[in-house]
């Protein structure tokens, strides 16, 4: 089933594809076949891209979940004012073939939302973490402060985030998407033990990327 975050985009794509197909049918020669075929392929890929599969959310209270489908590009130590300490940064790359609906990594309340306009560097570029257009989301609960960022990329030019400051959220809940690729960065504080490694693939809302060392990370 298509994600509601993609409905407006799908309507526009379908309208353009319909015009392309009709134009092809009215054209002579190979265009009569080529244009409708291109339009059909574009519509099928768009439906595939905006898919929103059901996920089974782990019930482990200490689990911190992946916010995005994709491949873990890097795991490194950084400092961010929100966590106030050295934190582990996990960068998850989403290819155009991955599910692009993003999910909450752990339960709590949204205490930090900040949009940064910026560049559109390739998602593989480490500088995209700090230089690209992005949305920072910080969640607090039971002594934990976890930050995650939706990062726009070279192809991804549209970040969707429906969260509001002060909102209570549950682990695994859908909250937005990044249209047509890019990455999601997650900063885990020292009181969260990392449960994944570079090169592993993740599924939003299902893959456990860390475990709280004390208390509950998921509410």
Task: Give an overview in words.
This protein is α+β, with helices and mostly antiparallel strands and about 220 residues long. It is built from 3 helices and 14 strands. The strands form 3 sheets. Strands 9-5-6-7-11-3-2-13 form an 8-stranded antiparallel sheet, with no helix packed on it. The protein folds into 2 domains: about 5-50; about 65-210, Glucose Permease (Domain IIA) (Distorted Sandwich).
Keywords:
219 residues, 19% helix, alpha+beta, 14 strands, 2 domains, 37% strand, single chain
Give a short summary of the structure:
The chain is α+β, with helices and mostly antiparallel strands and 219 residues long. 19% of the residues lie in helices and 37% in strands.
Give the tally of β-strands.
14
As a percent range, the share of helical residues equals: 10-25%
What's the CATH first level of the largest domain? Mainly Beta
Number of H- or I-type helical stretches: 3
For the sheet with most strands, the description reads:
8 strands, antiparallel
Give the overall shape, derived from the CA principal axes.
Answer: elongated
Q: What would CATH call the architecture of the largest domain? A: Distorted Sandwich
